[in-house]
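BUG: 3D viewer hangs when loading the predicted structure for this chain

Environment: internal workstation, default settings.
Expected: structure renders.
Actual: progress bar stalls at 90%.

Input used:
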Amino acid sequence: MNRFARVTTLAAALLSASLISGTASAQLATAAQPSAAPATAPAQARKANIVIIGTGGTIAGAGASAINTAAYQSAVVPVDKIIASVPEVSKVANVKGEQIFQIGSESFNNERLLKLGKRVSELLKQPDVDGIVITHGTDTIEETAYFLNLTLKSDKPVVVVGSMRPGTALGADGALNLYDAVLVASNPASKGKGTLVVLNDEIHTGRDVTKSNTFKAETFRSQFGPLGYVVEGRSLFYRLPARPHTLQTEWDIDKIDKLPEVAVVYAYGNVNPASIDAAVKNGAKAIIYAATGNGSVGDYMVEPLKAARAKGVQIVRASRTGSGVVVRNAEQPDDKYDWIVTDDQLPQKARILMALALTQTSDPKALQQVFWKY
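Structure tokens produced before the viewer hung:
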């Protein structure tokens, strides 16, 4: 038996054990309940109908051993088996699974992003669908969530969820994360808040959230904090997204068939100017320059960036620091060079926003307004 077969067999065994355990727990819980409520009790509220879309990732991963929390194979467990391993979700909502991809999220590209977005849009239009949960790898979960946050035309809840440990590992976080995600997607209070990301008992807006650590369960952070928490089966919101999303944006996933190429070039000491030339030669319509500090550009990089702009490529100054605002005309004379700044957007999210903005305009002044608005 090869390694892949061993891993998938272990995954199936552990998931089956989890399902049996969950069923037994449910039976014990039922036995402990008091007798049926009087006939005069109010009718139970209708459970929400939630579609869980599987795309792969660690939440669908399995390791060769229960101690493999960081070394494992992602995207090997089908979404239906993941759902079956968390029987508690059926108490919260009527759920059904749909597998659209089975990949690690590092393999997401524009084509897959568009395919996912269009399928989510189709489902949201169905009157018998109250919300969507997307199981996703954590590497690019923030990019997918931000893209959906900007392009879906519905106020129904969409929650993207993943895990930092495979289901075969000791201390696996996927089961609780999935339960919490279904809980949030089923909550009427989640309506109209845009695409959300739920992990580690926290509810984040897709705009702000980012992965900050390679292996810790508490890796996801938002610069301005989470929107709320999930505690003991309750989703609690404490603030609202301030920037436009979903129904408030000018982009509709149903009308977008292709995204323009936007490159991210990372700055460092002694960065090679050839990286700018390579992006231009590969057809980039814009370059997000992930610069140091407040979008600082080394003196030897100014001319290559100016040359790219002269060829019609949009230049966007970002920061590699992970937080803060890039100030226009501070480190560089952006007005003079006809460059753009990201405001507080991280480079990887600035790429998403710029790609969408370029589907409608190539005017740098209008593009700058987009970054200040979103």
